[in-house]
UniProtKB/TrEMBL annotation:
Ranges where the HTH merR-type domain occurs: 22-91
Any coiled-coil regions, as ranges: none
UniProt keyword annotations, A-Z: DNA-binding
Name of the molecule in the record: Transcriptional regulator, MerR family
Annotated SUPFAM superfamilies: Cobalamin (vitamin B12)-binding domain, Putative DNA-binding domain
Region annotation (Disordered) ranges: 96-121
Organism annotation: uncultured Frankineae bacterium
Domain B12-binding: 214-331
An example Gene Ontology molecular-function term: cobalamin binding
Pfam family, one: MerR_1
Length: 331
């Protein structure tokens, strides 16, 4: 059996990691072909013990713990000194490996290498991720647009926009961004993942008309801001609550944003800025004053809250943005 695949309950559904069996010392020792005392020594000396605590019970090994121990076992069999093998095993991300996982394998020098080879590997570091997150990460890294779209669509149908955004999409987006920051690679992955995600979120948003008799809700990116996914997440989240919106998309010029507010007199205007360079408070200062007034809400790490005009409210996250828009609509 492939050493990296012995851990049980791997890929597939979002809940498989939590459903996977937790193993006793004796069971793991049997699997690895080592004495239970060896496992206890590895736990005490190198910190390669079980990571889960159950009140009133013995500690159990998770599939990710077992995967680390497999690495430890393989490297020691290859002649690597135990302390060095443990260092490599501990450096592995604590990801539950699945049957089709592309989990990195450490070489003898301890460098992590992709199963499929190639510089930088083709895996994302997704520590502690569940099956849905890993599956999406794999599909994105494989540039498999059909699979990415299908996975996002299924997840939204199963668990809703908020859960999908926070617990499935964001971890993968953050990991893709971190990989780019570390290696300079993967902009094509960012594009594909963003495009497929936007397709699904827009399907949801576009199916819901505006509330009759209410002033509109307008969502826009700040000028020159090309990160637009949070806008689509907000639009889809509002759609789930029966609120249709007008989304103006990425990089809207300041004059066009002013024109849109003047022409529509929205109940709420949401402006996203991902990068500090696109968060110019003067753009918000210059917004026309409507009657009744428009609730101006901003979101994203670009904005510096202490530099914003007084009429502007900052949304910390997606649920908060939904709440602020709801409030502006008098819901
Ligand atoms: C997808 C993506 C892209 C796509 C965007 C496509 C699209 N249609 O949106 C493309 C390829 C165009 C792109 C381009 C660039 N990108 Co980019 N990108 C990303 C990525 C992977 C996800 C962006 C995203 O949607 N973030 C939203 C969520 C996932 O972020 P979060 O941190 O979890 O969210 C926090 C808050 O924002 C808030 N929140 C989360 N969701 C929501 C929703 C709402 C409604 C609200 C109110 C709040 C909220 O809660 C969280 C906790 O604070 C990020 C990685 C990252 N960590 O964000 C990089 C990232 C933002 N990009 C980065 C960079 C540098 C760039 C480029 C300059 C270079 C490049 N990589 O190509 C260009 C610049 C483009 C431009 N001028 O705007 C850096 C920014 C670093 C920095 N702080 O300055 C990041 C962080 C990658 C990294 N780790 O370095 N990017």
């Amino acid at each position: 059996m492939d050493e990296q695949r012995i851990a049980e309950g791997g890929g597939g559904s979002s809940s498989d990691a939590s459903l996977a069996p937790r193993l006793t010392v004796a069971a793991v020792a049997h699997r690895l072909g080592v004495a239970p005392a060896t496992l206890r020594t590895w736990a005490r000396r190198y910190g390669l013990g079980p990571s889960e605590h159950e009140a009133g019970a013995h500690r159990r090994y998770t599939p990710a713990d077992v995967a680390r121990l497999q690495t430890m076992r393989r490297l020691t069999l290859e002649g690597v000194a135990p302390a060095e093998a443990a260092r490599v095993a501990l450096a592995l991300p604590l990801v539950e490996p699945g049957p089709s996982d592309d989990a990195p394998l450490p070489d003898r020098e301890g460098r992590l290498r992709s199963r499929r080879g190639g510089p930088g590997g083709r895996v994302l570091a997704l520590p502690g991720a569940d099956g849905a997150v890993r599956g999406l990460g794999r599909a994105a890294m494989a540039l498999d647009a059909h699979a990415v779209t299908a996975l996002v669509r299924e997840e939204v149908a199963r668990s809703g926009v908020l859960h999908t955004w926070d617990h499935v999409l964001r971890p993968v987006l953050v990991a893709v961004g971190a990989r780019w920051a570390a290696t300079g690679e993967g902009v094509e992955v960012e594009h594909l993942l963003s495009d497929c995600t936007a397709v699904v979120l827009r399907e949801i948003a576009s199916a819901v008309p505006e509330l009759p008799g209410r002033r509109p809700v307008v969502l826009s990116c700040a000028p020159e801001e090309h990160h637009a996914l949070p806008l689509h997440a907000l639009a889809a989240g509002l759609a789930e609550r029966g609120v249709g919106v007008r989304t103006l998309g990425p990089a809207l010029p300041a004059a066009a944003l002013q024109a849109a507010v003047r022409r529509t007199g929205p109940a709420a205007l949401f402006v996203w800025s991902q990068l500090p360079g696109t968060a110019d408070p003067a753009v918000l200062e210059a917004l026309p004053v409507t009657r009744p007034p428009t609730a101006v809400v901003v979101g994203g790490p670009g904005w510096a809250p202490d530099r914003l005009p007084r009429r502007v409210t900052v949304a910390a996250d997606l649920p908060h943005a939904l709440e602020l828009v709801d409030r502006a609509l008098g819901a």
